Amino acid sequence: MTTFHIVFSRFDPLQEKHIGNIKASYESSDGVIVSSNSDKLVFSKGNSRTAGNMPKIRKVAFFLPHVIMGGVEKVLLEILTEIRKQRPQWGIVIYSRRPVKDRYFTNFFKKHGIKLKDHWTLIKPKKFLPKLAYKLVNPFYKKLSLPIAKTIIALGKYDVLVDFQSFNFAKEIHKLAIPKITWLHGGINYFNRNSDEALKYIGDYDKVVCLSDSFKEDFSEQYPDYKDKIVRIHNSVNAKEIQGKAKADKSHGKYFVIVSRFDGEKDNETIISAFKILAKKQPDAKLYIAGEGNLEKKMKSMAADCPQIEFLGKIYEPYTLIKNSIGHILSSYSEGLPMVLLENAALGTLSISSRCKSGPPEILLDGKAGILFNPGDHKELAKILSDVWNGKIDTAKLIKTATDNLDRFSSEHNTKQIINLIEEVYDEKSV
Question: Whole-prediction pTM value?
Fold first, then answer.
């Protein structure tokens, strides 16, 4: 008879006593079932990875410059949700340079038992001190903040450090004798523009994650000394969850949509310029723009003479808006693997994207699963918008191809790759 011990949701991976109890249960039975927040993880003695012992990793820290609504943060939440299912015994801590005030994120962390540290030592005093006080404090802050931050991180006794946004915490975790991974969310062009700083610290990291095959190929060719560090792991999308949150809604009529941050790299100005050309010929055409950012005033000024363009502000889950549009437009100069294109495919919405390095052509199968245009070319984009609006393109075929090829980006599969990578760098450092 096979016997399993069951450990319920009060299990705390940071408590030595709890770990000891699970080890004892494991040794005296055929395995252990850990149940936490309705998720279960089974450790059986037939499992090759855990045979004869329990997993060694107990604490993993993720580092971000900020936690705000954006593509990087969406990717992180998807990863953390799936990690909680596959490795509920891991203790997870999030470090943010800036205070996290958005309840959407703080509630998520609380729900999933994730600790948040937006500590003062990681925040620039300029953010909260008057000018005169800042001038007096800053010289001392510069000398003290880095060693204090290093000490705080070292005292956390983490098994693996994940610098989740392009070497952003490289100085704080530099020379700490802990396995390190960093994520490169941008395209190869973005990396090249910032490579001088990145190459100072890349040797300190065990692995560097990129998001697309084309990025990996370009990186390996341009930086051959580090090609053994680079690993491609796609962003993930939970298609069923997104589909469940999107509703049919024809109240807005026929329209295009943008869901984006408003910054220079996204080049939303090209979309506005292109749409204004269409709007002159098609008075009933509409463009809805969801998002926020430092270029919001500039964008609104550009659109002021076009009443068919409407700004909707920040929308946390814009799935209904995307689902009911005739096409979502992305016009970035550089991208890693944009989540919104994956969401479009999950929702059965046409993707219209710039052919920028590195992710969009890979997601859209070089034009077989969406429409690509040259970055910054508003006239080419205007022609595409006109053809889509007037039904001159077989958009149904493009959407079907995108949806049929969405399995490449499944959360379960890609998170397994991430977990394997974290366990791999830990095992290599532990030898």
Answer: 0.80
